[in-house]
Design goal:
Layout (H helix, E strand, L loop, with lengths): L11 E12 L5 H26 L11 H7 L12 H18 L18 E4 L5 E3 L2 E4 L2 E4 L10 E2 L2 E5 L5 E13 L9 E2 L5 E4 L4 E3 L4
Antiparallel strand pairs: 1-8, 2-7, 3-4, 4-5, 6-8, 7-8, 9-10, 10-11
């Protein structure tokens, strides 16, 4: 008698966003330090401009959005040697987001030098990063990262170059990666016996009994 064959369930494939963190080679540190100093200038300008608009000398105040800051900073990229208009817009967007998140008229200044120096940060839009072989092209500068093969076939989103406490630079870029959802072979229920008169199962069912 032939036995019916049980077909194993095919794992579902979904996509999630994970941040890839790749270390930049030391040859690009000097350029990124210069770009970070210009990013700090844009942030500090956005802070001063937004505070002046929120607390004017006369008349009602206005909370500037990222769009407002973009209009006021139009053409500002000509004054910088490292960053372009896309990075300025990313800084404006981040400033507006953090100001709304913390509900403050003033945020902290970003400091480029001295003992209280802020860690370097250079945001970018997805369209600004171009791959050329094992190198990356950003704002007219060629940068190399370790483990560049991890970017193969990855759809990158807007991210940033970030500096850590020891001075190393990292490429941090959110990317969509496929994830397989495996199906459990057997069904089981776990029970948490943390209470004297109540137990909670993994299926969110409460079981109560008498303590006597």
């Amino acid at each position: 008698m032939a036995h019916a064959m049980t077909k194993k369930p095919t794992p579902e494939v979904s996509h999630c966003v994970r941040t890839l963190r790749l270390k930049v080679m030391a040859e690009g540190y000097a350029w990124l330090n210069g770009a970070a100093a210009e990013v700090n200038q844009v942030w500090n300008w956005a802070k001063a401009t937004a505070f002046k608009a929120a607390r004017p000398f006369a008349g009602p105040g206005k909370c500037l959005s990222a769009y407002d800051l973009d209009k006021l900073s139009a053409g500002g990229a000509a004054a910088f040697d490292y960053i372009g208009s896309d990075t300025i817009q990313r800084v404006n967007a981040e400033f507006a987001t953090r100001r709304r998140q913390f509900k403050k008229a003033k945020l902290r200044w970003r400091v480029s030098h001295g003992a209280r120096r802020s860690l370097g940060w250079v945001p970018f839009k997805a369209a600004q990063i171009k791959r050329k072989g094992r190198c990356l092209r950003f704002a007219g500068k060629t940068l190399r990262v370790f483990e560049a093969q991890r970017l193969e076939g990855v759809v990158c989103k807007s991210g940033c170059f970030a500096q850590d406490a020891v001075g190393d630079w990292w490429l941090c870029v959110p990317a969509e990666v496929p994830v397989e959802r495996s199906v459990a072979a057997k069904s089981a229920v776990g029970i948490d016996l943390g209470l004297k008169t109540t137990a909670a199962t993994s299926q969110t069912t409460l079981i109560r009994w008498s303590a006597e």
